[in-house]
Amino acid sequence: MSTVWTIDPTHTQIEFSVRHMGLSTVRGRFNAFEGTVETGADGRPAAIAVDIQTASIDTNNTDRDAHLRSGDFFDAETNPTITFRSTAITPRGGDRYLVTGDLTMHGVTHGIDLDAEIGAAITDPFGLRRRAATASAVLNRKAFGLHWNQILEAGALLVSEEVKLGLDVQVTAAESAEAVAA
Q1: 150-159: per-residue pLDDT in tens?
Q2: Which pTM was predicted?
């Protein structure tokens, strides 16, 4: 029997980091998202689907966030959602997995690989079944049509093309929520 798990947004972080001016790292996160993880009868992940609202980007700087929502970057009005759909989940031993999937951002879809570690299920004090996972990937933002940049005097890019993704996800089992509500 498979189990569908729903992302718990209050215990989940979807974050990114990029180099700024070749000097420091700017970090940000998305605050609005939803998704599911389906596990097979053996408890292993079988499918993952995530939808992220681009307008929820938060880098702790109002002007920068507005620029990232603009047509120079995400064009959040035209492309309100970033989606990820797994295409394969390969065990790597222990709790580690290679999660391969299609990431659609700014209207462009490319395959990406996430290095993931997925923990065992537990029951919390309220009777909900929970699991947690971490995952990371590196992607090139230009591949997704995010081309805006400036070359600085010393030849460095204002915004790095390489983006590091970091996910810290907690999910609850759908039947747990139904059992508590009954």
Answers
A1: 454 665 545 6
A2: 0.85
More confident residue, 145 or 151: 145
Q: For strand 24-30 and strand 33-39, is the pairing parallel, antiparallel, or unpaired?
A: unpaired
Overall number of domains in the chain: 1
Report the SS3 class of residue 107.
Answer: coil
- Placement of tokens 């798990």 in the chain: 5
Contacts of 147 (CB under 8 A, 6+ apart): none
What mean pLDDT comes out for the span 49-61? 94
In DSSP terms, 53 is beta-bridged to 81
pLDDT for the residue 142: 73
Q: Tell me the CATH number at 82.
A: 2.40.128.110
Distance CA 106, CA 97 (A): 27
H, E, C per residue of 108-139: EEEEEEEEEEECCCEECCCCCEEEEEEEEEEE
135 and 95 Cβ atoms separated by less than 8 Å: no
